[in-house]
Design goal:
Largest sheet: 2 strands, antiparallel
Strand content: 5-15%
Strand order of the largest sheet: 1-2
Structural class: mainly alpha
Order of helices and strands: HHHHEEHHH
Length: about 130
């Protein structure tokens, strides 16, 4: 069974993540397209593909690579996480303001009002 830490470790390698995302986008095109799109040697490509297959994220049907059902689930999770990180990065200075308020004597109710004013949407607030 693959653990979350193992998948995260896989995706810390930029090329492995690119292979995974490219397989998702190409949806069945063969390895030659993957190799030319990513500029990898055969050995480097197959090393990374082996890791993705071992983790259960991709499978080869005939000569084509596809995401497994598990791989599709992980793809959705990574896309959602990337979106959340993008939102957080865009609001970085709002978080700095929130952190600095905790060091002041401003009452909690007032701090909450300021936080609500800083963020138009509640889901942007990270706990």
């Amino acid at each position: 069974m693959t653990t979350a830490q193992e998948i995260m470790k896989l995706f810390t390698d930029k090329k492995t993540l690119q292979i995974f995302n490219t397989i998702a986008k190409l949806n069945g095109d063969d390895r030659i397209i993957l190799l030319s799109a990513l500029g990898l040697t055969n050995k480097r490509f197959y090393t990374r593909i082996h890791l993705l297959k071992y983790a259960g994220l991709v499978k080869k049907i005939d000569r084509y690579y596809h995401l497994t059902a598990f791989g599709k689930c992980i793809l959705k999770i990574t896309c959602d996480a990337e979106l959340q990180m993008t939102i957080a990065i865009k609001n970085y200075y709002n978080y700095v303001v929130i952190d600095s308020m905790s060091k002041t004597d401003i009452p909690e109710q007032e701090q909450q009002k300021i936080q609500d004013d800083l963020f138009a949407k509640k889901e942007m607030l990270l706990a």
